[in-house]
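This part of the workshop introduces the protein records we will be handling. The question running through the whole workshop is how a given chain folds. To make this concrete, we reproduce a full record directly below:
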Amino acid sequence: MPRSNPIRRGLSTMSSSGLKKIVNIAICGFGRAGRLHFHNIRKNHRCLLKYVLDCETKPVHHTLNEYNLPKVEIVCDREYDRILQDKDLDAVLVTTPTNTHEDYIQQAIRANKAIFCEKPVASSVAGIAQCYSEADKAGKPLFCAFNRRFDPSLLGLHRQVQEGKIGKIHEIRTTSRDGELAPMSYFKQAPVIYLDSAVHDFDWICWLAREEPVGVFAHGVAHNKVIADRNDSDTAVIVLSFPSGIIGTVSVGRYSTYGYDQRTEVHGDKGMLVYENAREAVQFASSQGYLSGTPHPSFPERYAEAYAGELDHFVDLVLDPSVPMRVICECV
């Protein structure tokens, strides 16, 4: 049985003031990230999914049938130009392989579309700067999704740091380990661990510190042969040195036996703030003691609220150009 479709039919796309209130979106890329954003678009009453673009259309057909979405058009990646010509299309959501992001973004800018892009925007600093410059000239938002900036718990920690609760920051430590190891096929096209995984920690630490590092030391090893053969690491430690004297330390790993592990510790001259790894809320108690809940299996479950929040922010940007963007070029 197809699942019910929560997108309400017959809605006006314009508000009483004449401003659009529904954003028509195309998803480009239907892998793990694309499917994750698909569900958030489906649940968001201010979004209407018009297209899904992917080189493999069979899984897309299956998902759209499951959720009873016959009006969403499925297109192959060769038809990107055609959907960009649709004047009713407001935005594209880019979750294609990372080495294609820049091209998808540049084409969307030329077609006058708003862009939501998974990191990275481009594979070089110059490419990133050019994408943002072109988007600025076109007057369209280019939003790069760094989900930790939209997580309620981490937002609370960030607010307390900025309010001075721990005084002058001395040190910021993060731990980021994936749960189950991704399929080996993923590593054939994925960026190295520093650009694929640790980049979220770099963004998070710099956002907390409110400055950029002036020194970086990194050491990584590969315990998995497939990862080692592509000259990558599955376990790494990175130390960041900041102008103010703050030291940032990142411990990052591609897998752990106990589940998805995300922790933060911020130490200052007035105290320390600690964010422990999120777990299932239910605990089991017996004569043997308490058994705490298990960690989330992976990022879609851990950062579910953050992913929904970043989509909401993007919709705000599209519908109201006066809304300040929370992830700007200098952050990426």
About this structure: The first strand starts at residue 23 and ends at 28. Confidence is low (pLDDT under 50) at residues 4-12. The CA atoms of residues 227 and 255 lie 12 Å apart. The chain is about 30% helix and 25% strand.
